[in-house]
Design a protein that fits this description.
- The chain has two domains: 221 residues, no CATH class; 26 residues, no CATH class.
- The chain is α+β, with helices and mostly antiparallel strands.
- Helix 1 packs antiparallel against helix 5 and helix 7 crosses helix 8.
- 42% of the residues lie in helices and 22% in strands.
- The longest helix has 20 residues.
- The strands form three sheets. Strands 3, 4, 5, 8, 9, 10, 11 and 12 form an eight-stranded mixed beta sheet that branches. The protein has a three-stranded antiparallel beta sheet with strand order 1-13-2. Strands 6-7 form a two-stranded antiparallel sheet.
Length: 273
């Protein structure tokens, strides 16, 4: 079973807490956040309070590029991003991803992934998409939500859950304005609000918000133990379960030659069942 641990603080502080956790944790994805909300319910902490998740949305070359964690420039530059966004934007000039200029890496990855279905892209090009509202029963028709949910079915399931359980009729997908200079912003999944909304903040610039938070995800000790036991039992079965060849080999000295054919035929029938 996966455990979700909320780490509080601004974006850099919360990430630092995740990194220093005694149990190794992964920065939760937007899809995991949606799935866990559905599992825990509308009254759970994960639903009643928003959080950052590991996606980012970047202006590159006048277009908005959404990323998974591996291409999120904010994660490795969290402290710099927090300080920059206190007074303005976190611009990508001078920022590197795996030793290469971030803007170039993101543009190239978006081009390579352009022919893949939207939910399978590591970097998705959303062009100059504007902020827009999406009916809860149409989440699967919105590219941004499908990208975040990692599947059309997952997007539709979350939208249906919001409508049926939280009375959410529509959600707003908030996109940043294009200002002509490459920059990066975080992703915040809004809480289930009293006004019947739950918005997708693909334009979050408030990384210095000390009241922010994010989730670390890890496998529970019980779940890990069960997996270990399953592997151990499988290995034991593999070791102690003889095959037909071994049985015939070791039985041969103990079966009279006149009875061997009947014995072999019967043993084969047992193994073939």
């Amino acid at each position: 079973m996966e455990i979700y641990k909320r780490h509080r603080g601004n974006f850099a502080v919360a990430l630092g807490k995740l990194a220093r956790a005694k149990t190794k944790q992964a920065f939760a994805t937007p899809a995991q956040g949606m799935q866990e909300r559905m599992r825990q319910g509308i009254e759970a902490d994960i639903s009643t309070e928003g959080a950052w998740y590991n996606a980012s949305f970047n202006e590159v070359g006048g277009r908005i590029l959404g990323t998974r964690a591996e291409f999120n420039p904010l994660i490795d530059c969290a402290e710099q991003a927090v300080e920059s966004t206190r007074i303005g934007e976190f611009y990508l000039e001078g920022v590197l991803i795996n030793g290469n200029p971030a803007s170039e890496v993101l543009a190239e990855a978006a081009e390579r992934d352009a022919q893949k279905p939207i939910h399978k892209r590591r970097v998705a090009d959303f062009g100059q998409m504007k902020t827009h509202d999406v009916p809860a029963d149409c989440f699967g028709d919105d590219d941004t939500i499908v990208f975040l949910a990692e599947s059309k079915a997952g997007a539709n399931k979350y939208g249906s859950w919001l409508r049926k359980n939280a009375g959410v009729k529509e959600s707003r997908v908030r996109m940043q304005d294009i200002d002509g200079k490459d920059k990066s912003r975080g992703f915040w999944l809004g809480r289930l609000a009293d006004d019947g909304r739950s918005d997708f903040y693909c334009d979050d610039r408030f990384l210095g918000n000390g009241g922010g938070s994010l989730f670390g995800v890890y496998e529970s000790a019980e779940g890990t133990q069960k997996i270990s036991e399953q592997h151990e039992h499988a290995e034991q079965r593999r070791i102690i379960s003889p095959n037909l060849s071994d049985m015939l080999k070791y039985s041969r000295p103990f079966v009279h030659s006149r009875d061997w054919k009947d014995f072999e035929r019967g043993l084969r029938a047992k193994f073939e069942k």
